[in-house]
Specification:
Elements lengths: L7 H17 L3 E2 L3 H18 L13 H4 L9 H8 L7 E2 L1 H4 L41 E4 L5 E3 L17 E3 L2
Antiparallel strand pairs: 1-2, 3-4, 3-5
Helix pairs in contact: 1-2
Amino acid sequence: MNFFGVTEPEVERVYKRLFAEAEGGGYHLNPDLEFTRNLLRGYIRNEQRYGYPSCPCRLASGKRDDDLDIICPCDYRDSDLDEYGACYCALYVSDDILAKTRILGPVPERRPPRRERGQAGTAMIAPGPSLLPEALPYPIWRCKVCGYLCARDQPPGVCPVCKAKKDRFERFL
């Protein structure tokens, strides 16, 4: 056992899996290996504690439905990467940070206060005008992790692109 009661083989296993998933999806893990492994200890500890890998830098409620937006990778990752070059906890970094052409700085909390989040823990967003026909035969589901869209009665059990579980999907249309 080590820091947080997490073994080094566990940290290495999770690191290899997340690294492969990140690179395969066009993302990058923070190149500071000591920093990244410390984040992963918190990630693993949260998974042990709650049964899901909530962001190691945020306070989870312990209720999966309330924390869906902060299950790693969180719903805010892509916006943070675009604007700040890293996600809130800096586990994921942009090409610029990886290439050292941009300096990693603080990333402000993007998660709305609890009272402003919807029932599933995500920010409530007003729908925009639809470009699709009014009468679709199936609802459209969107993976909140990678943006994958599918039209079917229910969301898939696992996203075919990023492997996020069914509860990470939201009704899009």
